[in-house]
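User: quick one - fold this with adenosine-5'-diphosphate bound?
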Amino acid sequence: MFEKVLIANRGEIALRIHRACHEMGIATVAVHSTADRDAKHVLLADESVCIGPPAAAQSYLNVPSIMAAAEITGADAVHPGYGFLSENARFAEIVQSHGLTFIGPSPDHIRLMGDKITAKVAVKEAGIPVVPGSVGEINDPEDAIAIAKDIGFPLLVKAASGGGGRGMKLARKEDELIQAVQTARAEAAAAFGDGTVYLERYLEQPRHIEVQVIADSHGNVVHLGERDCSLQRRNQKVLEEAPSPALDQAGREEIGQIVRKAISKIGYLGVGTVEFLYEDGKFYFIEMNTRLQVEHPVTEMVTGVDLVREQIAIAAGEKLSFTQDDVRFNGCAIECRINAEHPRTFVPSPGKVREFHPPGGLGVRLDSAVYSGYSIPPYYDSLIGKLIVHGACREDALRRLSRSLDELVVTGIETTLPLFQDLLKNPDFQKGDYHIHWLEEWLAKHDS
Ligand code: ADP
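Assistant: Sure. Structure tokens for the protein plus adenosine-5'-diphosphate:
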């Protein structure tokens, strides 16, 4: 097992990894920008190294600085968390070439899944159903029109290197398509340094359902069921739950086994999430994330599996501590993403947190790096914490969520917490009857 892990991240996820390491008897090294000197992940780590100024490009994405920090502290592995360098195949290679372990899949798998076009081809070959679309990239507008005739409208133009819900353009008719291809290309080139785009049938009212997998280097692959992440704003997840209100045990087992077989065929190692759109009882693959996800606690709460602990153990060459037959799905878990943003306008609200009072009690978990008196810097993502609740059934979980939201106090800044209190009063949400556009439609109605 590793003796010392460098955590190449910040915020709640850095803390989550630190906690798993300490429970495993592993020392931690935090890296941080000059803006994060007082961050909780820095205060709790065994050692910390400042790796640059506030801008992420010069600190959390600064590979030479991070590698220097790993060398001077004698770390033997690097955990990338999510975001930042977590899906950067080159970074994984550099870590390995320095004789350290990258806690994640192989650089080849990161690369394969990082390009959504090659990912789609690979999973389709492995037996996973995909969204109908262009087989590869779209080279010119004429190409797009010919393919559109085959697939039919509406269509979504998507960036091969896209992420974070960006780089997508909708075309409902032929005359919108050329413009959509051009805009998507330009935006993707500016945002991701790669203007490659492809076409996908636009599904009108699907749910977003994803399957968590974990695979070790001894040939064991296990699926840990699904998470429903259909409550989204601007293609970004806002609330996640497990199990999905739309699936029954047979449906869960069926998609779980399809994914499990495919992941085994691909020879994947580590934790990963296979994301689908789900409409009219059918699953359509959209992408695979080759890292730990923000919403992983929802799966931990219903299965009792410590995903980060297993992820670290697998990277150290150990066998998974459980088999598929050991996995039991117990009750319902719901996660709310708490952002430092105005709850209606979603304008970021960084600044000093005056009071921070976490909720407690049975079935309540708060993953956050915030504390009273902490100043949220304006330079990074606005996610400041995640409130996760577990209940024996969905009704229990909803009641527990409402009670925990009442207890949770954050003052001094705006947060998205009031949004969840309002959502809980909605009958459709209470029934679990929603799709990926539901939240935006609800917000538009609510504000008018
Ligand atoms: P990203 O990597 O940017 O998150 P994804 O491919 O995972 O991109 O898609 C993010 C979200 O965009 C999905 O959860 C869904 O809401 C929407 N989306 C993606 N593809 C489609 C599609 N073909 N039809 C309808 N919505 C889509």
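One thing worth noting: The mean pLDDT is 96.
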